[in-house]
Design goal:
globular; 274 residues; four-stranded parallel beta sheet; Rossmann fold; 2 domains; 11 helices; alpha/beta; homodimer; 44% helix
């Protein structure tokens, strides 16, 4: 009989996203906590989540989480903004491990950044419709005013590889027109694809507007919770586990994923959720 | 016990698509065959198919078809170009009713239209990658040369409602740059969303290029097959059945669907395929 290591801290951190974008969140987690074992799931067969209903996104999020829970995880990260906006409460109810979304960390980062108490949020249709960022920001500091804009074309633009193209600049200018006039000094990039548009968005919004994304602050939140619960894995010098699963096209994930994760991305295996 | 009409011709024509676009095909079918009963399924929970793998699109197409077959259909129409490109052979194997895709009718229309034997095809990544239109066109007339271009941003552009916007014009100009130089006189709009971009595409390609889509010729093919098999329903003056199902957001389908189908679109019911 094999010896099974039952130490809780050796268990994996599970991270899921509707597709590839959540790798930016995983990247920050592995940077801050390099000795933690991780398993990532990208639901590339049903991507995107951002244009779908709350009911459907909730159902998908639960299926994604169930898959990761079967990999013996100690903590679940919802790297997808839309799934975080719609499904966190449901996930917290269904699973008895800590669940972290990207909305609360992003909201905290935005409230910390603004000097004029005016924060803009851009995201998918679902994320904006849910008002999740506005609710979280108001909860942290009711004095902060929020201004929102859904940008449905940003994800396909990034996927097309046109993030720094003049076409991206024209589309971004259209979407950001009202936000530019709103007097915000902080803009939340409320979708994991948007950090790849930073240069384009920044050129439009100007130096006076700080761009905030959730990845780094989500990693900090992961560390805090693991530490609070005595679950941090400080490593034993052995190899760190980095598993990747997708529900469609592992080859494409490997190629496009490097844009988001950089070196260190392993080949993904195909996952069947249904 | 109710009297059940077992007459084969009274059975429904089943039409499926990855989402809303297939309504353009259904519209042509109902225009040509107004007394036929129809059932439509839009897989809006897993849309789009165009960026996904052959294996996944095949699996989805079979699930879509199984759902329609449960509604007692006499003929199956794959209104989605990507599903037609990847899954027709599989569907023909799995089901014992006639299966019609949009590729062959579109290819026939293009071959009939070209005077210089040079045809362009635009479509999703999947449709272009499959070479299905090129294969079909070469099969009909080997003398015809084909020129292809995937246009991944066209569907999100139409869904955003920007089909006739200056942004659409800029994106279309980029995608069509090489096709414009290729000497084609016929361009296949190889995706059900693209007819909504006709004005924009036509302005770039010029009057010398005929735009062909599959909807009308697919309807003609449906009529031919039903007629050949003695399955045409000439109606008995009773009410015609028009059922609509989607896998996500029936409300959104009703609103956006009217852009594709016009009046006569009924409320859709939610369908569960898995």
């Amino acid at each position: 009989m094999d010896m099974i290591d039952t130490s809780k801290s050796k268990k994996l951190i599970g991270v899921f996203d509707s597709g590839i974008g959540g790798l930016t969140v995983l990247k920050e987690i592995t940077r801050l906590l390099p000795t933690e074992n991780t398993v990532y799931l990208g639901d590339t067969a049903r991507v995107p989540y951002g244009s779908k209903s709350k009911e459907t996104v909730e159902r998908y999020a639960v299926e994604d989480a169930k898959f990761l829970v079967r990999h013996n995880i100690k903590l679940l990260v919802t790297a997808c903004n839309t799934a975080s906006a719609y499904a966190i409460a449901r996930l917290e109810n269904e699973f008895d491990i800590p669940v972290i979304g990207v909305i609360k960390p992003g909201a905290m980062a935005a409230v910390a950044a603004t000097r004029v108490n005016r924060v803009g949020i851009i995201g998918t249709e679902g994320t904006i419709k849910s008002s999740a960022y506005c609710t979280a920001i108001k909860f942290i500091n009711p004095a902060v005013s929020t201004f929102v804009q859904a940008c449905p074309l940003f994800v396909p633009l990034v996927e097309e590889g046109w993030a720094e193209d003049e076409i991206a600049a024209i589309i971004a200018a259209r979407y950001l027109e009202d936000l530019k006039k709103s007097g915000i000094d902080t803009l939340v990039l409320g979708c994991t694809h948007y950090p790849l548009l930073k240069k384009t968005i920044s050129a439009i919004m100007g130096d006076g507007v700080m761009l905030v994304d959730s990845a780094a602050s989500t990693a900090v939140e992961v560390k805090r919770i693991l530490s609070d619960q005595g679950l941090l894995n400080n490593g034993d010098g052995g190899e760190v586990v980095r598993k990747f699963f997708v529900t469609d096209s592992p080859e494409r994930f490997y190629v496009v994923g490097r844009r988001f994760f950089g070196e260190g991305l392993n080949q993904a295996e195909l996952a069947f959720l249904e």
